[in-house]
Receptor-like protein EIX1
Amino acid sequence: MEHHLLCTSSSLLLLFLFSSVPITSQFPFGSRKQAYDHSNVTCIESERHALLQLKHGLKDESNRLSSWIGEGYCSWEGIGCHKITGSVLKLDLRNTVPLYSDEDYHCTNCLGGQLTPSLFNLTNLRYLDLSVNNFSTFQVPTFLGLLKNLRYLNLSGAGFHGEIPHHLGNLSHLQHLDLGDSYSSPVWNLLSTKDLGWVVGLASLQGLVLFGVNLTAAQDGLQSINMLSSLTTLDLHSCNLFIHPHLSHVNFTSLASLDLGENNFNNYTVPPWLHNLTGLHDLHLGYNNLSDPIHGLFDQMTSLVHFDLSSNRFDASTLKSLCNASSLTYLDLSENILQGPIPSKIGQLSKLTNLLLSFNKLNGAIPTNLWQLTKLQDFDVRNNSLTGVLSEDHFAKLRELKSLDLTGNSLALNVSSSWIPPFQLQEIGMGSIIVGPRFPAWLRTQNEVEVLNMQNASISDAIPNWFQVLCDNITSLDLSSNSLTGNPLEFKQLKHSRYASREVSLSSNKLDGSLKSFPLDISDLDLSHNFLTGHIPQLEDGQTSVVHMLGFLFLNDNRFTGTIPEDLCKLENLSFLDLSNNLLSGRVPLCLGNLRDLWILDLANNTLSGQIPSSLGNLATLCFAFEWK
Ligand SMILES: *[C@@H]1O[C@H](CO)[C@@H](O)[C@H](O)[C@H]1NC(C)=O
Ligand SMILES: *[C@@H]1O[C@H](CO)[C@@H](O)[C@H](O)[C@H]1NC(C)=O
Ligand SMILES: *[C@@H]1O[C@H](CO)[C@@H](O)[C@H](O)[C@H]1NC(C)=O
Ligand SMILES: *[C@@H]1O[C@H](CO)[C@@H](O)[C@H](O)[C@H]1NC(C)=O
Ligand SMILES: *[C@@H]1O[C@H](CO)[C@@H](O)[C@H](O)[C@H]1NC(C)=O
Ligand SMILES: *[C@@H]1O[C@H](CO)[C@@H](O)[C@H](O)[C@H]1NC(C)=O
Ligand SMILES: *[C@@H]1O[C@H](CO)[C@@H](O)[C@H](O)[C@H]1NC(C)=O
Ligand SMILES: *[C@@H]1O[C@H](CO)[C@@H](O)[C@H](O)[C@H]1NC(C)=O
Ligand SMILES: *[C@@H]1O[C@H](CO)[C@@H](O)[C@H](O)[C@H]1NC(C)=O
Ligand SMILES: *[C@@H]1O[C@H](CO)[C@@H](O)[C@H](O)[C@H]1NC(C)=O
Ligand SMILES: *[C@@H]1O[C@H](CO)[C@@H](O)[C@H](O)[C@H]1NC(C)=O
Ligand SMILES: *[C@@H]1O[C@H](CO)[C@@H](O)[C@H](O)[C@H]1NC(C)=O
């Protein structure tokens, strides 16, 4: 079917405006792809004009809107049209790849500038997404309240400032409103409202995100939100709510997802009206200093699957009572005051995929029931006082495990050198537990490791050759404070890691031999306190034209000889350079003074000679220079 529709007269346009074609149901909200092939639907001149005016007002450094030329606007980037009328239904200018262009973190891919009121001429607009852009210093335009047909409005992480215009309350068809911050955006909104009364007008609202909106002056805002009976998602994370929201009668009982995290309520009880939200799937109460036990809260919440109680002051009785919430798959009680042993009732939570109990005071042995949680993917008990020896049997059923953090407990891992674990871990935290004395041979079976912490793990062994291969995929490696021997590892640049950075620490071991090169994507390299010899490497050919990530370089307390290579001056992100306690000689390269970010430079206890390069005086931020022998 093809529709040939040339520029419409306004009467034809009106015809379609008032037709009741049910477009919403087939309209893929959130989809990045344009839903229809519009190439043969030509323009409604006023809408084309409105779009061009919009473009004219926008700052578009990376030319994202380069396709916005010619007649057929329906095929322009981000535009979705009505199949028949050619009227603009969707304007999706979300920035999916926020690129930084320089060290000042300027977002090149972000659209900025001013939203022109011509938007108002897109009379049929149902979907407007301006998220992850940079409209810094601009307020949310009041004329958005005139886009009466809007179903979806997303201004998340777009840099808008100031008071939210109450005019948005006129959008009675709106189903999703996101004015929050976005972790994927380099720019944050700075919005506030003195009175949330306007939301009452949003009678069709299903999702409301006010993450990060300052509600200091609208402490009773929840009363207004409570009028929205079709609400299924409510995000009030980090809204400066400090007065405990009191609701005498809960209206939004269809809520499936509620986030009240990071609000510092001045009342330490969980709001009692939560009991009535029996349909909740996701509940976030983290970072609120809540402490009163919440027994019985979950007896009726039989659909709760995701529960975040992190950074509060709950004790072990809360963990015990939660063991009855058998629908849970995700439980985060990290950074609370859980004490005593992990209750063996934990085995009742047979659907658990994530059990996060780090930074508590749990002690005793990990109960055997816990090792029967076969769905577990992420188990984190970092920084507790758990005791015991873990063997192959413990892990036998944990096939799904991806992340295991046992760091900072009195635990020991005792497995045979031929152990083939049932899991493939991506994150391994075994710092300050006993893993050695042999280098753990089972690591060789783990092909997906990205984070490995076996710092201070009592390993007294040579680094095996096969580990070199594994390393190439690791973004964070800490094997410091063991007694590792052999050559330092050679790090190859990770593939596909334009912005990824790696941290590597092998400090305080017994490594000898020399260092071959500095990999391009390592941001933090610590090889201090070993027995490394030879010269500090030059950058390899071809490396010099590329910007190095290296910001922290610790080669101190080794036996490096030769001069300080001038190549170090090309590490333009270098902020911390420690070469002290080596056998370096010769002059200090003058060009070190060109490193603008350098703020710690330690060259003490070498046999350097000559003058202090006067260029070091350029280092405005330098706080510790160097001593001469
Ligand atoms: C647009 O219309 C022309 C003329 O009818 C036709 O040849 C062409 O295939 C159509 N293009 C699309 C993409 O439908
Ligand atoms: C956003 O825009 C403002 C004003 O133009 C500018 O100062 C700021 O650096 C930009 N932020 C980013 C992350 O690009
Ligand atoms: C909207 O369109 C009308 C004509 O339909 C035009 O007169 C008016 O200037 C337009 N407004 C904007 C802001 O583009
Ligand atoms: C709004 O956009 C942000 C960032 O693009 C996204 O994370 C969020 O899910 C969107 N909100 C809604 C309600 O779709
Ligand atoms: C829209 O909302 C504003 C502020 O709440 C109000 O003053 C105005 O009358 C409303 N306009 C329409 C057309 O409803
Ligand atoms: C939030 O708004 C209040 C006034 O309503 C103001 O005093 C406070 O500084 C704001 N907080 C932030 C973090 O902007
Ligand atoms: C609950 O909704 C009803 C109407 O739907 C309204 O009359 C009542 O005021 C609401 N209750 C609260 C506490 O907002
Ligand atoms: C919760 O539900 C109970 C029973 O349905 C009802 O009596 C009570 O008033 C409700 N409480 C709130 C705060 O809505
Ligand atoms: C805290 O909230 C509970 C439940 O709403 C209430 O009973 C109690 O009085 C409040 N405590 C304070 C100190 O406000
Ligand atoms: C957290 O709650 C405790 C009481 O449970 C209180 O003593 C403490 O001051 C609170 N901390 C903050 C930051 O509000
Ligand atoms: C590194 O990662 C790639 C891609 O995920 C994978 O194919 C490869 O097997 C991994 N190599 C090692 C040694 O783990
Ligand atoms: C100087 O460095 C050497 C290693 O090169 C070390 O043995 C010695 O203890 C260091 N001296 C001082 C005073 O730190």
The longest strand covers residues 385-390. Residues 462-629 form a domain with the Leucine-rich repeat, LRR (right-handed beta-alpha superhelix) fold (CATH 3.80.10.10).
